[in-house]
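Annual report, structural modelling task.

Input specification for the nickel (II) ion complex:
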Amino acid sequence: MILMNDIIREGHPTLRLKAKEVSFPLSNEDRQLCDDLLEYVVNSQDDKLGEKYGLRSGIGLAAPQVNASKRIFALHIPDGENLLENFIAINPKIISHSVEKTYIETGEGCLSVDREVPGYVPRYARITVKALDKEGNVIKKRLKGLPAIAFQHELDHLNGIMFYDHIDENAPYKDIPGATAFDRE
Ligand code: SB7
Ligand code: NI
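The model returned the following structure:
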């Protein structure tokens, strides 16, 4: 089971690597990694289990964050629409995106970053994505809102990119041309 101590923090070199594609059929090790990532995001959003195991709540977790440089992440976004609930993405890709951008009004956070970094993180407002599931089936989805933002945050982790790389240091709350704010609340 993944606990906070298993999550590497900024400064660890693995977070800056381009993670490796996963091959199929999945090894037992990769299968376990998928399940562990998903278990973390689900448990961390459960008040009781989160408290019991001391988990910081997160809607997503990428393999590099547990020091496994592989193209895998898990997302659990209970939003009624059911688009990214209990979702595991292997070798994920954005196949097309809107011109329009979006950003979370209150900024982003990261389980690998133990500080608040203020500022807008520009993301594509709408994306069409492809990924493989554990059996190697191709999953294709159109995402907007928080699911689209979270998918881009996790995909960045597979490419060694941190959310604050996107923030304008000199003007963190500068207007982003062509962007509509997304209100998480
Ligand atoms: C805000 C938070 C996340 C994604 C998008 C906006 C996920 C935070 C947890 N993670 O560090 C996952 O990489
Ligand atoms: Ni993160």
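Residues 110-112, 153, 157 surround nickel (II) ion (ligand 2) (CB under 6 Å).
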